[in-house]
Design brief:
The complex is a heterodimer of chains A (100) and B (173). Chain A has 100 residues and is mainly β. Chain A has 1 helix and 5 strands, in the order ββββαβ. In chain B, helix 2 packs antiparallel against helix 6, helix 3 packs antiparallel against helix 5 and helix 5 runs antiparallel to helix 6. Classes of the chains: A mainly beta (100), B mainly alpha (173).
């Protein structure tokens, strides 16, 4: 999700953001990974289908695992909208634990 | 912003937040069934070693019993770990590498993966050479399909390890 987010950044997620309105295209959201629901992902909403499914994309399309591989996701997997992000002062270069 | 980050980091220490992966599972395209095959060899080897271990008799000293227990524990631990590596590697190939068109081309793929995972569980649960050999057999079949999807021919040869079982290798180079 660089440059919007980098390794080690903190995000504060508003779980109530979509109580009154639906997620919109361009929103940065935290969602449950449809393949492993106990893992959270952070992606941007790319499209909303008429049937209420949400296509999510990483900002760096060539290296992102997103709706292009796992398909559009149902509303219930969207945890909330990223309300605030705090950048890590010094960028960590290590890989996320899932890849180590 | 750095201040906010420091503050959140402190909060994170007190009450750890869940991680959200913004850039996870890079589809790097680097897959190889060899990890699963190798893990199956390790499970076979551990079962061989457990079989070769001399059991302490009624007149064994406490030290001899301790040594036996220590060795047995180490073999069992490695067997457990490698059976789990095997299952993980099979799942990665299945979930991340193989695509719907591969499953169409090789309709036995899903059943094969299912059997592999069952074999992996049995190899992990029991001290059972047949189950461990079954793990390798299934991994070899997955390897054959994997290399076919890449257009790489394969051959079967005895592995150059103490286990010496037939293993499927790609003909590369």
């Amino acid at each position: 999700m660089s440059p919007a987010l980098g390794p080690g950044d903190y995000v504060i997620v508003n779980r109530w953001a979509y109580r009154r309105r639906e997620p919109g295209v361009g929103d940065l959201v935290v969602l449950r990974d449809p393949q492993y629901e106990d893992r959270f992902l952070c992606k941007r909403i790319a499209a909303v289908s008429e049937s209420g499914l949400y296509a999510v994309r990483g900002d760096n399309e060539s290296v992102s695992l997103d709706s292009r591989s796992f398909g559009p996701i149902p509303r219930r997997l969207i945890v909330g909208k990223v309300w605030l992000s705090a950048k890590a002062g010094r960028r960590e270069t290590r890989m996320p634990e899932s890849l180590a | 912003m750095a201040l906010l980050h420091s503050f959140l980091k402190m909060l994170d220490r007190v009450s750890p937040a869940k991680a959200a992966y913004a850039h996870c599972d890079i589809p790097c395209g680097i897959y190889d069934p060899h990890h699963a095959q190798l893990a199956a060899h390790t499970v076979i080897r551990m079962i061989d070693l457990i079989g070769q271990l001399e059991k302490p008799g009624p007149s064994a000293t406490p030290e001899q019993r301790q040594e036996y227990m220590a060795k047995l524990s180490r073999y069992v631990l490695v067997k457990e770990q490698h059976a789990e590596i095997y299952k993980s590697e099979v799942r990665i190939l299945w979930g991340d590498y193989f695509k719907p068109e591969h499953a169409q081309q090789f309709p036995q793929l899903h059943d094969l993966v299912w059997k592999s995972l069952k074999a992996g569980s049995k190899g992990r649960q029991e001290i059972n050479l047949l189950a461990a050999e079954d793990m390798l057999k299934q991994a070899n079949e997955i390897a054959t399909i994997f290399w076919k999807t890449k257009g790489v021919p394969t051959h079967s040869a005895k592995a150059p390890y103490p286990t010496g079982r037939e293993t499927v290798y790609p003909n590369i180079g």
